[in-house]
Specification:
Elements (H helix, E strand, L loop, with lengths): L8 E5 L15 H16 L4 H8 L2 E11 L8 E11 L3 E10 L2 E13 L11 H11 L6 E5 L1 H19 L4 H4 L8 E6 L5 E11 L2 E9 L8 H15 L4 E7 L3 H6 L3 E2 L4 E3 L2 E9 L1
Parallel strand pairs: 9-10
Antiparallel strand pairs: 1-3, 2-5, 3-4, 4-5, 6-7, 7-8, 8-9, 10-13, 11-13, 12-13
Length: 285
């Protein structure tokens, strides 16, 4: 088993509580590491787990877990947990898993899941959509479809995500969230392979040749899956194609690093908007 066999890794750091009296990671914790990596694997496929399983009328249950210990992890080690779909049967899915410290393989394992009725836990055939999603992810195919459109075309999905993120999660008053600019903007919505809307953003004309990106929002459980990057790239490309020379945005303080990594630079001092600290950032096109 080589690192190159895996296209997905979850990075973890060994905590003090995970080390036993032998000063190495207690053997049972590696199953927790694998479980954490499985959750990250679903996220990398842009798949909200509970919503997807409800959509598929089933759920996944562990039938068998095996581990082989080759070396030990120790306190404060940084570990890469590899996870990959190896085989899909009629009702079962076999995942291969591995724990690496750098290039050193510490633990390898297999997890067998069975797709089953959540009420009776009786096996069901793996749905064709889930089978195709797993195969396409392992083949490196795109997991997202980012669509551009008007408020009439995408407003229902965009409004649902913004309500969830800004109004419900961040407690921004609803009257501050909605404005007349929505009907004039170009909107982007990211959909997964099941047609679920996971993130949104908008692009409006701020001044001649200057576009403003705003209302960037991603469902909470899907953050860290590059959905925000996909939305931002799409909106930036839209601005380029229509001839804008500069982009600006008001970044929440928690998102400044995200936009900085995308090439935006800060301009001016922090300010408060809707009760949240923001920083204006710009990007030349």
């Amino acid at each position: 088993m080589n690192r190159d066999d895996f296209r997905f890794f979850e990075r973890l750091r060994v905590r003090w509580v995970e080390v036993d009296l032998q000063k190495i990671v207690f053997n049972g914790h590696y199953l927790m590491y694998f479980d954490t990596a499985v959750a990250g694997y679903w996220r990398a496929m842009a798949m909200p787990y509970h919503e997807t399983m409800k959509y598929l009328d089933g759920d996944l249950y562990v039938r068998k877990a095996t581990l082989e210990y080759l070396d030990s992890a120790r306190y404060d080690d940084q570990l890469d947990i590899g996870m990959r779909c190896v085989r899909i049967g009629n009702s079962s899915i076999l995942f291969g898993a591995a724990v690496y410290r750098g290039d050193t393989l510490l633990v390898s394992g297999e997890l067998v899941y069975v797709f089953a009725n959540p009420d009776t836990q009786t096996p069901l055939p793996v749905p064709a959509q889930l089978r195709e999603l797993l195969q396409d992810f392992e083949a490196g195919k795109p997991m997202l479809d980012v669509r551009l459109g008007t408020w009439d075309e995408l407003g229902r999905e965009a409004a649902a995500i913004r309500t969830q993120v800004f109004v419900q999660e961040q407690k921004i008053p609803a009257e501050l969230e909605w404005d007349a600019a929505d009907v004039e903007c170009m909107h982007a919505v990211a959909y997964n392979r099941f047609g679920m809307a996971l993130g949104t953003g908008r692009l409006l004309e701020h001044a001649p040749g200057v576009a403003k990106i705003g209302r960037m929002a991603v469902q909470q459980t899907m953050r860290g899956a590059d959905i925000g990057h996909a939305l931002l790239d799409t909106l930036m490309q839209c601005a380029r194609e229509r001839g804008d020379r500069e982009l600006l945005l008001h970044a929440q303080s928690s998102a400044v690093g995200f936009y900085a990594r995308a090439g935006f630079t800060a301009r001016g001092s922090p300010f408060e908007e809707a009760g949240i600290t923001h920083l204006e950032m710009v990007h030349a096109l």
